[in-house]
Amino acid sequence: GAVVSQHPSRVICKSGTSVKIECRSLDFQATTMFWYRQFPKQSLMLMATSNEGSKATYEQGVEKDKFLINHASLTLSTLTVTSAHPEDSSFYICSATTVAKQTQYFGPGTRLLVL
Amino acid sequence: GENVEQHPSTLSVQEGDSAVIKCTYSDSASNYFPWYKQELGKGPQLIIDIRSNVGEKKDQRIAVTLNKTAKHFSLHITETQPEDSAVYFCAAGLGDMRFGAGTRLTVKP
Q1: Which residues in B lie closer than 8 A to residue A108 (C-beta atoms)?
Q2: pLDDT of residue A1
């Protein structure tokens, strides 16, 4: 149980385009989903917290207009990187949790490369 | 907010030896302390967790200890195997988790 998927696993795009990453909880309902960014050999940096049906809460320094988060259902959250630039290239990981548990279950990650 | 420090940043052990990774946290309100293992190119996987009402928890070769007074917790891996090689992250929090910087464990055969 507690499986989280992400799609796509890898994406290469041109500078200036937008990229959407999906995060799904496959066997449980996720009241809260988190989006992280991870640079090579570094820790997980929380970008935002999204609760189903409400606006995401962004961490300080994360541009909400650039990283659009939608959590429309209890099993799906999406992160859209708008007008991507090479500095947005990174490993993006989502996690999901329920109101009953604090445990976060992570997806496999999405590697974004912006050319 | 919560601040988590993790040591060491790298750890190399011989197969069969034990490995210990230590974390400290700053917010005394934190009550949940998970440990994650991350292999190259993959998302973190929960390996063990402990809550503040427990001092120690064990699962086969893995154990975690928590000292709430000193605000530190540790991961212990016994009889290490090459497949234990990965990056390990500790985390602490109440709702939102804050992660340590990670420890790269290498188990030499």
Answers
A1: 42-43
A2: 66
CA distance B58 to B35: 12
Contact B99 A44 (CB under 8 A): yes
Which residues does residue A97 pair with via DSSP β-bridges, in sequence order? A32
DSSP state of A88: G
Question: What is the average pLDDT score of chain A?
Answer: 92
Residue B46 tokens read as: 């929960």
CB contact under 8 A, B46 and A43: no
Rounded Cα gap, residues A50 and A29, in angstroms: 13
List the one residue out of B16, B14, B19, B55 whose CA is nearest residue B37.
B19
Cα–Cα distance, A22 to A76 (Å, whole number) = 7
DSSP code of residue A56: P
* Terminal Cα-to-Cα distance of chain B (whole angstroms): 41
CA-based nearest residue in chain B for residue A98: B95
pLDDT in tens, B19-31: 999 999 999 999 9
